[in-house]
Design goal:
153 residues, mainly beta, Immunoglobulin-like, 5-stranded antiparallel β-sheet, 4-stranded antiparallel β-sheet, 42% strand, elongated
Length: 153
């Protein structure tokens, strides 16, 4: 009977010893989508055309960062420009993306930069061009808000 207890104790000790040597740890992690754009230098554009001037240009810079693929930057105005005036914009693209060149802004969104993928860019050129035909007449202190969005391309 003593042998039985001794063997039983040895078997239980061996099982406990080997089960402590095997260990698995599951680590759970995630990376959330990140899409950011910001104007990083330069004042808000102010265009004051004098007699005989029909256009004015203003340049700022912007930054963009994303950890996703195939994004695009679009822009629109809070309302259309007054008759016989236009506001155009051109954004320099970050590495690997493409600019759509000069685009006329209105209340309808237009694509400015396409094919943005997993990139971070700073001090990228943002150029505005305001123009007015003589038929526009006198326009005093009128403003427009430019809305920028980054969405799937």
């Amino acid at each position: 009977m003593n042998r039985f207890y001794l063997c039983f104790l040895f078997v239980i000790s061996s099982v406990c010893l080997f089960s402590e040597m095997d260990m698995n740890i599951t680590i759970v992690f995630s990376v959330e989508p990140m899409n950011e754009m910001g104007q990083i230098s330069g004042p808000a554009p102010v265009f004051e055309l004098k007699a005989g001037d029909y256009s004015g240009c203003c340049e700022n810079t912007y930054s963009v960062s994303t950890n996703e693929t195939n994004k695009k930057i679009s822009a629109s105005l809070d309302s259309d420009m007054p008759p016989y005036t236009s506001l155009q914009i051109k954004l320099a693209p970050p590495s690997g993306a493409k600019s759509t060149g000069w685009q006329t802004l209105s209340a309808t969104p237009v694509d400015l930069v396409i094919e943005i993928s997993e990139v971070s860019g700073e001090d990228l050129s943002m150029t505005y061009l305001f123009s007015a035909e003589p038929k526009a007449g006198v326009i005093k202190n009128t403003t427009r808000i430019v809305y920028y969005t980054m969405t799937d391309g």
